[in-house]
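Tip: read the tokens left to right.
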């Protein structure tokens, strides 16, 4: 397990040495800096769990260091060290974002208690952020982009969402088909009801019917209890059938019946269950071609394809890359707890020159790679160096 890493910024060598010795004895990993400028430089290079910072220092004092940490959005608790004559300044520092202050001369027990409290509080804050992100993953964010194809999709969503019409969303992997489905749900009258997603390609063909329609206890070897399927769980809301082109023929027949009659029957059961579900389907396959080859039912295709929405590949909407890159940059820097970085103009141009075979998903991954591997500014040379490493 990685040690907790602390940075001590103080212009007095004896205090730096004493704190380093004490904290290392307490099993912390400690770096030191003799002034504010050096300390800030180290904070932009390394990820620290806590910063101990003196207030009175040459070059940059503690208040300036604190202000820059807050301005850069660095996710780290700061404990100020104050002399006898500047308690008011220390209190002002807390108002401006510091966790606490320790008065000189330093008391060992008081120092350790303050640091442990700050670290425990930071752990709780991080846990809350993780939980909030997990909760928010189910919520919609706007489709990012202002290119002509994206504006047409947004217009279509606004028209179609308030209705109960089924929508077939087509486009390559990673282009954002799920996001379109979520927007359709969030802007509909079913928004407060469940949005249930099924990835038809990820579920073995022998289990897809149980996944969709549920099963009765004892209907097959591992069916130890009754289980509701996704159609029942989505009752009153929306069901998103992702990669529907990979669905087995048997499951296709049952989905068709469910759409025709608004009824399903669990595997191993004979009771009909009424369901009120709006279905969105998505695929990266050419379904008319799949129909010709006997892999997909034509009648199901026409049931699903009431409203077609085609999501373009990223290569067809490169004008959106600056907005997408900025969106992912902010999100990833926040998730990683690092200072906000900047992509230069030549960096954006280099991103627009990449052949995005993996679409939006690939762009997000590349931005994360650049955030981890690059300095404060992400330049064109960085993109050329790291973006082509598949």
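Filled-in amino acids:
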């Amino acid at each position: 397990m990685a040690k907790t890493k602390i940075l001590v910024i103080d212009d007095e060598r004896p205090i730096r040495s004493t704190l380093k010795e004490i904290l290392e004895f307490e099993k912390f990993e400690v770096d030191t800096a003799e002034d504010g400028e050096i300390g800030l430089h180290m904070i932009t290079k390394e990820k620290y769990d806590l910063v101990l910072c003196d207030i009175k220092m040459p070059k940059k004092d503690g208040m300036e260091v604190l202000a820059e940490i807050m301005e850069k959005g660095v996710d780290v608790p700061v404990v100020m060290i104050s002399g006898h004559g500047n308690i008011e300044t220390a209190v002002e520092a807390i108002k401006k974002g510091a966790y606490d202050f320790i008065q000189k001369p330093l008391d060992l027990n008081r120092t350790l208690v303050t640091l442990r409290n700050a670290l425990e509080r930071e752990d709780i804050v991080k846990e809350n952020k993780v939980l909030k992100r997990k909760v928010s993953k189910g919520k919609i964010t706007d489709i990012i982009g202002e290119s002509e194809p994206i504006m047409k999709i947004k217009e279509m969503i606004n028209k179609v969402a308030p209705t109960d019409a089924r929508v077939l969303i087509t486009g390559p992997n990673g282009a954002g088909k799920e996001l379109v489905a979520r927007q359709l749900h969030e802007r509909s009258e079913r928004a407060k009801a469940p949005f249930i997603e099924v990835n038809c390609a990820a579920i073995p063909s022998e289990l897809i019917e149980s996944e969709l329609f549920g099963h009765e206890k004892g209907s097959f070897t591992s069916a130890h209890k009754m289980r509701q399927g996704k159609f029942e769980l989505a009752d009153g809301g929306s069901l998103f059938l992702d990669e529907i082109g990979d669905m087995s023929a048997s499951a296709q027949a049952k989905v068709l019946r469910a759409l025709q009659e608004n009824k399903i029957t669990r595997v191993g059961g004979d009771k009909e269950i009424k369901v009120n579900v709006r279905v969105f389907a998505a695929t990266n396959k050419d379904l008319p071609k799949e129909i010709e080859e006997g892999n997909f039912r034509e009648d199901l295709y026409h049931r699903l394809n009431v409203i077609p929405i085609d999501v373009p590949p990223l290569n067809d909407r490169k004008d959106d890359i600056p907005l997408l890159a900025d969106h992912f940059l902010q999100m990833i820097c926040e998730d990683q707890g690092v200072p906000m970085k900047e992509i230069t103009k030549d960096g954006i141009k280099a991103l627009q020159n990449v052949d995005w075979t993996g679409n939006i998903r690939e762009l997000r991954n590349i931005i994360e790679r650049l955030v981890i591997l690059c300095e404060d500014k992400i330049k064109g040379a960085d993109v050329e160096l790291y973006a082509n490493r598949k």
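The CA atoms of residues 75 and 126 lie 9 Å apart. Residues 108-136 form the longest helix (29 residues).
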